[in-house]
Specification:
Blueprint: E1 12-13, H1 18-22, E2 34-39, H2 54-63, E3 68-70, E4 77-79, E5 82-87, E6 93-98, H3 112-123, E7 152-156, E8 159-163, H4 171-174, H5 185-191, E9 205-211, E10 215-220, E11 234-239, H6 243-251, E12 257-258, H7 267-271, H8 274-277, E13 280-284, E14 287-293, H9 303-312, H10 315-321, E15 326-328, H11 351-360, E16 367-374, H12 379-391, E17 395-402, H13 404-413, E18 418-420, E19 426-427, H14 459-469, H15 477-494, E20 497-508, E21 513-514, E22 534-535
Parallel strand pairs: 2-11, 2-12, 16-17, 16-18
Antiparallel strand pairs: 1-5, 3-4, 5-6, 6-8, 7-8, 9-10, 10-11, 13-20, 14-18, 14-19, 14-20, 15-20, 21-22
Subcellular location: Periplasm
Function: Part of the ABC transporter complex GsiABCD involved in glutathione import. Binds glutathione.
Domain Solute-binding protein family: 77-447
Length: 536
């Protein structure tokens, strides 16, 4: 995290445009032009309170803004619609000063009332926002509803004060999430429940056309408050395009970015052709692919068994199934995430050691279990490799290859002894170690329907996690990350997961596309930061 404040009580005041201080514009950038992006599936919604998938994430980010934002292509926080902010000495009160003159693309100026309305809306149970829980530290969250959040107060038209019920070191990251985007009440009301198809925001682009099942057209917001961007006049998203067809169209100059990336079946061909490989962009992701071991289902209730499974998996071989587009994982956090424990080697691949642990657990003859997997390539092939590795230590794993929704249902219900997370694996919502714990390893996520499919719950580690996130003073940042490292080392000691690999993202861009490669694999605006790319 960029050190925005010298102390928790000091206000950050930026007199110059933010972009001039935290992002150096590309000297070769040119304004104008429209690009074509393809996707296989249509977009479900462009409502920032509802949208929660990697496909619509960057679209929503280009239509809306929040109080906070990130430096393009990085995980470094910067102010967004907030020009400056102050944090009280106890870390419980955030006072945001808003930028003057920011307009929604319906022409009305944004005010602090819009900020309060937007936060009240996303946390109102009637909205059914999948991101409501991120705002749990705001005072009054437990009683959020028609009355709104008691912790969000409009001080004046350009000042909003947010009071927390507990210190939360992740709060500024939460204010940068799509879910915290500022929306105008009159536009939501006018849409009559269809705001996701009729979005109105303050972003770099606005929606000009949406033909369901065919295409979406974004056009440049001429009144955008950030000076000099976006460079593009527009973006056309063509949906219903098979990834292989999209690749062929890119080769023919008809497509600028294949939104679904390089098709696995074409990866070797693309990388083996110098002309195509030159257009490939590679970037790390805040991602971990893992196998969950349900600690409430025998024999996975025995830590020796869970450790044996960790030692049985040949992670190097599995990464080759996806053409080496990943690095073997040692722990839940990916290497690019703050709090990652660099000197931890994880469980070594050791077949004989795994057999010895099974014998120690009274299972020298092995056992039979089920491995659930999403039924799209390459996940069934990865499941087969896992099945073979387990067979080598006497475990018979019957593969249950199902649709994504069915795997998620079984994992949430706790009826799946093992789940390979591929196709559903965790990509962080924001670049902070806490986001890899609460939803998928903490006690809160272990309930019915939760994403903690191992059903692992350690109250001592939960308490340590809460303590870590109470260290909101920037001076405590190092201590906080050390505490998070200890949390994840505690998880690995109990082995409810087999972390398998940290996947890298491979995509392509046409020859006419310009802008830093990091913008095409943006770790926050997944997958592309449309505000800053340009046509050469």
């Amino acid at each position: 995290m960029k050190k925005l404040l010298a102390s928790t009580a000091l206000a950050l005041t930026l007199a110059l445009p933010v972009a001039a201080q935290d992002y150096t514009p590309d000297p070769n950038a040119k304004a104008g032009g429209t690009i074509t992006v393809t996707y296989k599936d249509d977009v479900a919604t462009l409502d920032p309170a509802i949208g929660y998938d990697w496909q619509n994430w960057s679209m929503i980010k280009s239509l809306f803004d929040g109080l906070m934002d990130y430096v393009p292509g990085t995980t470094t926080l910067r102010p967004g619609l907030a020009e400056s902010y102050e944090i009280s000495e106890d870390g419980l009160t955030y006072t945001f000063k808003l930028r003057a003159g920011v307009k929604f693309n319906n022409g009305r100026e944004m005010t602090a009332e819009d900020v309060k309305y937007s936060l009240d809306r996303v946390t109102n149970p009637e909205t059914q926002s999948p991101g409501a829980g991120f705002f749990g530290s705001i005072a009054g969250f437990e009683n959020a509803g028609a009355g709104g959040l008691s912790g969000v107060e409009v001080v004046d038209p350009l000042t909003v004060k947010i009071t927390l019920s507990r210190p939360d070191a992740t709060f500024l990251h939460v204010m940068a999430l799509n879910f915290a985007s500022v929306v105008p009440k009159e536009a939501v009301d006018a849409a009559a429940g269809d705001f996701g198809k009729q979005p109105v925001g303050t972003g770099a682009f606005k929606l000009a056309e949406w033909t369901l099942g065919q295409r979406l057209v974004f056009e440049k917001n001429a009144d955008y408050w950030r000076e000099g961007v976006p460079y593009l006049d527009g973006v056309v998203f063509e949906v219903g395009q098979e990834p292989v067809v999209a690749l062929l169209r890119l080769q023919n100059g008809e497509v600028d970015v294949p939104g679904d990336g390089i098709p696995p079946a074409k990866f070797v061909e693309v990388m083996g052709d110098p002309a195509q490989a030159e257009r490939v962009v590679v970037g790390g992701q805040l991602h971990t692919g893992y196998i969950t071991l349900n600690v409430t289902t025998p024999p996975f209730d025995k830590v020796e068994v869970r450790k044996a499974v960790n030692m049985a998996i040949n992670k190097e071989r599995i990464t080759q199934i996806i053409n080496g587009r990943a690095v073997p994982a040692t722990q839940p956090l990916p290497p690019s995430m703050p709090g990652y424990t660099g000197d931890y080697a994880g469980y070594a691949y050791d077949v004989e050691g795994a057999k010895a642990l099974l014998a120690e657990a009274g299972l020298a003859d092995g056992f039979e279990t089920d491995l659930y997997v999403m039924n799209t390539d390459p996940n069934p092939r990865i499941a087969q490799a896992i099945q073979q590795d387990l067979a080598a230590i006497g475990i018979t794993a019957n593969i249950q290859s199902l649709a994504q929704a069915n795997v998620i249902e079984a994992g949430g219900a706790g009826t799946a002894p093992m789940v390979w997370s591929g196709g559903m694996a965790w990509i962080a919502d924001f670049p902070d170690p806490s986001n890899f714990y609460g939803p998928i390893l903490g006690c809160a996520g272990a309930g019915e329907g939760g994403w903690n499919w191992s059903k692992f719950c350690d109250e001592a580690l939960d308490a340590m996690a809460v303590q870590a996130d109470s260290l909101s003073d920037p001076a405590q940042a190092e201590a906080r990350l050390k505490m998070w490292s200890d949390v994840y080392m505690g998880v690995m000691e109990q082995a409810p997961w087999v972390p398998v690999f940290n996947e890298e993202r491979y995509t392509m861009k046409s020859e006419r596309m310009g802008g830093d490669d990091a913008l095409y694999v943006d770790p926050v605006s997944i997958p592309v930061n449309y505000d800053y790319v340009f046509v050469k």
